[in-house]
Amino acid sequence: RTQAEMAHTCRGTINLSTAHIDTEDSCNIVLSNGGRTYHLKANSEVERQRWVTALELAKAKAIRMRNNQSDDSGDEEPASQSDKSELHGTLKTLSSKLEDLSTCNDLIAKHGAALQRSLSELENLKLPAEGGEKIKAVNERATLFRITSNAMINACRDFLDLAETHSRKWQRALQYEREQRIRLEETIEQLAKQHNSLERACRGAPGLSSSSTGITSTAKGSVQSAKGEASDEDEETEYFDAMEDAPAFITVTADPKHHRRSGSNLSGASEGHPEDWNLEDSVFESSNQSSYNESTCKDLLPKKRRRTRIPDKPNYSLNLWSIMKNCIGKELSKIPMPVNFNEPLSMLQRLTEDLEYHELLDKAVKCESSTEQMCFVAAFSVSSYSTTVHRTAKPFNPLLGETYELDRLEEFGFRSLCEQVSHHPPAAAHHVYSRRGWTLWQEITIASKFRGKYLSIMPLGTIHLEFHSSGNHYVWRKVTSTVHNIIVGKLWIDQSGEIEIVNHKAKDKCQLKFTPYSYFSRDVPRKVTGVVSDADGKAHYVMSGTWDEKMECSKIVQSSHGSTSTEGKQKTVYQTLSPKVLWKKYPLPENAENMYFFSDLALTLNEPEERVAPTDSRLRPDQRLMESGRWDEANVEKQRLEEKQRAVRRRREAEAVEALEEGKDYEGYIPLWFERKVDAVTGELICVYKGGYWEAKDKQDWSTCPDIF
User: Fold this and answer.
1) Strand, helix or coil at 605?
2) Would you tell me how many other CB atoms lie within 10 Å of the CB of residue 122?
3) Strand bridging mode 342-346 / 394-396
4) What span, in angstroms and rounded, lies between the C-alpha atoms of 563 and 568?
5) Region Disordered: which residues (predicted)?
6) CB of 655 within 8 A of CB of 649?
């Protein structure tokens, strides 16, 4: 099958060219690709081996096909059957008319020739001189008439050929205009429906009186539709499953004193206790991030002075189109890119940047309520995108076996380790241990497509977070990142999709929606909204904010069903207390625009450190040369490292083919510090930390590390 066919397979399909094939025991086979895992069972060990051999051969064939073929998938959608029929009917009518014109042309030519013969005969007769001149003039006019009729027929034939050539282009233009008109009509209709529903919900919401503060503004409160919101996303953007059971909701800020007096008179609603929303007794704080730093971060002051700047980014010109025009439709990891498109950090370091707001998890440890803890976990999941708003450069693709450690055990109580465990597809495993009461681990596979006008980056895999004292185990996935204006215009990044965070112990859930940018929307750009609910589905908190600035949490004191909208959906009205700021982005350091818009943490990630593993990203020579501003040398070094890695991969593929021909098992690349296991919570095959790295660091015994640089 071609790659274009593979890209449009049915849901649930695993692409063998990027799949991991493992055996659990004598009869079981595990197929995994990103976040999807299949468990197969054979009748006997012999049959299992036959299947493994067949799958490995099929995988090798799929890899060869992927390397030899280019992705022919385009941005165009095929015309519908009715449009094709209409187009063919029009062309058939034009052809019929052209045949009629050709017949008329033949008749004109026939009769014109007869007329000329007759006129020639008249010229030969003995007629007066005046009559001969007139007959000669008529003969010339008949010749001109025949020439003109032939030219007309040729022009009609050229027109039909042109119509056939450009009919596809006209059809696409017409279809685009139709879609734009329908999209605009739907958007206007949706806005009108939301406006009317908001008015009805405001009038019909129970418990509202003159003492209530009323409906919050569009930026604060939220009118969120779980499905059907208009956007101008391209058709290739990856869409996630919508929250089918999550109706649109409206938040209304209520007066706590008023609610305390009137709460006993409300019926048919889920009620909370405003007195629980107390700054002195709750982990939540309404103060901003700076006051949080002043009051609680005295013990977090770094004991080691770290760098606060890097060399300024050089101003090198580059012909972008000459490089990009040959990359359309290809997998991003297969495109040889110069360092001009990079930033001096690897993907492993970018993954470690998720820990910039680790104090949110430190605060979550102190929460007694699992739903309160969920709010902090949700804010942490959103905070990881705050560094991407200005970061349009591409991180370095890690080499297979490359690692990155971030040891902040003495300063912030945690230590982090990343390892590149697969190259095709690129996959990184990450493990973080905090002695303040939590552990985080993940395996992320990056799928990306360049389509000429934008770049979609789809992180596959799950993120796990476990709190030691409570045993609460949270799992979620990342959303799709899209880089727009790749060729023309200023680059900008958008995050879109939905995150479902699940506490597998308490069964709490949080549904977060990242609203994609829309030209027609009045919402705040980069908006994120969500609801935290318990195992019974009862909503406790409303989350709102933006992924590049801050996240707020509002405690729900009452929820009720508003009026039914015209499309038959029931809106939920949440009365909430005043929101509390859970997370606020740190300001960027001075001169950040000349330092790749790095945050304070990002500036320290590539700082040279002693005693790290020889495979650490800090020791990667091309990345270090780029950071120093020596880009030409960095490009040469980058090509050398990539060619070295290709040679290792070719040798490994040859060994795999030889083992298959001999009927032996071939394990392939085995990660050094991680191992593949079936996760007990999700049932997925995931790389987890097996230990040994920090012990090897203490002993400075790196004898097992491969030579990748």
Assistant:
1) helix
2) 16
3) parallel
4) 10
5) 65-87, 202-237, 254-278
6) no
- The answer to whether 679 and 687 are in contact (CB under 8 A) is no
- What Cα–Cα distance (Å) separates residue 382 from each residue in 311, 386, 514, 551, 552? 30, 7, 9, 8, 11
Q: How far is CA 10 from its chain centroid?
A: 20
pLDDT tens digit sequence for 491-519:
889 999 999 999 999 999 999 999 988 87
Give kind and range of the element (H or E) at residue 542.
Answer: strand 539-546
Structure-token pair, residue 469:
């004292």
Bridge partners (DSSP) listed for residue 559: 270, 574
Q: Please tell me the total number of residues recorded for the chain in this structure.
A: 709
Q: What is the DSSP string of 661-690?
A: HTT--------SSEEEEE-TTT--EEEEE-
Q: Could you report the per-residue pLDDT of 106-159, keeping only the tens digit for each?
A: 777 777 777 777 777 776 776 676 677 777 777 777 777 778 777 777 877 777
Strands (E) located in 375-486: 394-396, 403-408, 414-423, 426-434, 438-450, 454-460, 463-467, 473-476, 480-484
394 in Cβ contact with 408 (< 8 Å): no
Structure tokens at 435: 């002695």
- Per DSSP (E only), the strands in 220-282 are 223-224, 249-253, 270-271
Q: Which residues pair with 674 in a beta bridge?
A: 689
d(CA 617, CA 367): 36
Residue with tokens 């971030």: 406
Q: Where are the beta strands (DSSP E) in 487-538?
A: 492-503, 509-514, 527-533
Would the pTM of this model clear 0.90, i.e. be above it?
no
